[in-house]
Amino acid sequence: MIGTTRAAMLALMLGGVCAASAQAQTALKFGHIVGTDHAIHVGATAMAEHVGRCSAGAVKIDIFPGGQLGNEGALIDQTRLGAVDFANSGASFLARNLPQLGATSLPYAFRDRDHAVAYANSAVLRELMDAWEKATGQSLLSAYYAGAFHIYAQDGFASPDSLKGRKIRVPDAPSWMVFYRAVGANPTPMALGEVYLGLRQGVIDGANLPLGVGFSLKMHEVSKVITMTFHQMEIAMLITGQHLKRRLSAPHWACIESGAKVYAEAAGRETVRAEDALRKEMTEKNMIRFVDVDLGAYQKATASVFEERIKAGEFTQALIDRIRAVR
Questions:
Q1: Residue 195 has pLDDT above 50, yes or no
Q2: For position 307, which CATH number holds?
Q3: In this structure, what are the phi and psi dihedrals at residue 59, rounded to the nearest 5 degrees?
Q4: 84 phi and psi, to 5 degrees?
Q5: Do the domain assignments include residue 274?
Q6: For 169, what's the count of Cα atoms within 13 Å in the CB-facing half-sphere?
Q7: What is the mean pLDDT of the segment spanning 126-140?
Q8: Cα(65)–Cα(36) distance, rounded to whole angstroms?
Q9: HSE of 193 in the Cβ direction (CA atoms, 13 Å)?
Q10: Residue 73: what are its φ and ψ, rounded to 5°?
Q11: Could you tell me if residue 116 is inside a domain?
């Protein structure tokens, strides 16, 4: 009887410890707008695993893919309010709050992918990220190369002239519209979740997407051609709100900071892998046709946009020179 009583007491004590431990765990939310096979989700998963190990299970990151917590703009707003702890967004979108951050969103801002990858880890970008934080009160924890943009459509656009008058979906941010306006197209803001139906129903003539995002969202099912324009190479960043650092202990915040680096490394690595593999895979499986373009003609058609933006005061020639000098 005494042994039974002691066993019961021990079980009760252990149960109390487990309950206390469960209560002590901090659960954080990471929201994104793409599928679980995309680089963002791969990076978020790697970050969640790292933070769990680093904090000995005291901090848990729950991932909500596919726009479950809102579109890109809503997620950024929610990180500001503290309703979401982490979100991913590109420089093009974030430039709404700091135009200088959108300098690399202009057509053919980078020489090639290696240049974009180097810029994502440069002191130039870190300065701009710090300036964005001062302007918004939010934090940009890390950055990575998030892919080159192309055009999903029913027709190919081998030359800039073939895009004139065409209605092409872009995210709802001014920097996304620059390329299409420069070639005479009609950039049309639309939420990412509406693009599949928009292409299928012919509401839009095409969609501005990197290969990884388009594949994850199965845009090849409602498109016949991907025109490989490489007109924009996006740099994405991991965002959080000021609430999070206040909420966590110093050691746990250090886990978040190191986890953000893990996130960027994993997401960037997966982006490059997907870019290198997807064209071959989609061609071999006859999913869609790829059209290569006259890059020189596209670059010439859009060459004036830098001068125009500098004259408009959005950024300086000195900033452009520093970005171009990154190796």
A1: yes
A2: 3.40.190.170
A3: -120, 125
A4: -125, 140
A5: yes
A6: 23
A7: 96
A8: 7
A9: 11
A10: -65, -40
A11: yes
Which pLDDT does position 173 carry in this prediction? 84
For 40, the domain range is: 26-325
Residues 6 or more apart whose Cβ sits within 8 Å of residue 56: none
Average pLDDT value for residue range 299-317: 94
Check whether 13 has a pLDDT greater than 70: no
* DSSP strand pairing (167-170 vs 186-189): parallel
Residue 122 to residues 86, 128, 142, 143, 323: CA-CA distances in angstroms? 22, 10, 11, 10, 9
**Does position 44 have pLDDT exceeding 50, yes or no?**
yes
* Residue 21, domain member (yes or no): no
Which of 6-15, 57-66, 85-94, 102-111 is least confident? 6-15
Tokens standing for 278?
């997807």
Return the half-sphere exposure (C-beta side, CA atoms, 13 A cut-off) of residue 235. 30
Mean pLDDT (the chain, rounded):
92
Cα 272 to Cα 209, 282, 303, 306: the distances in Å are 15, 16, 27, 27
Q: What is the pLDDT of residue 122?
A: 98
Residues with Cβ within 8 Å of residue 58, at least 6 apart in sequence: 24, 25, 26, 252
Alpha carbon distance 208, 215 (integer Å) = 13
Does residue 8 lie within any of the structural domains? no
- The structure tokens listed for 229 are 């324009």
User: What are the pLDDT digits (tens) for 216-250?
Assistant: 999 999 999 999 999 999 999 999 999 999 999 99
Domain count, the chain: 1
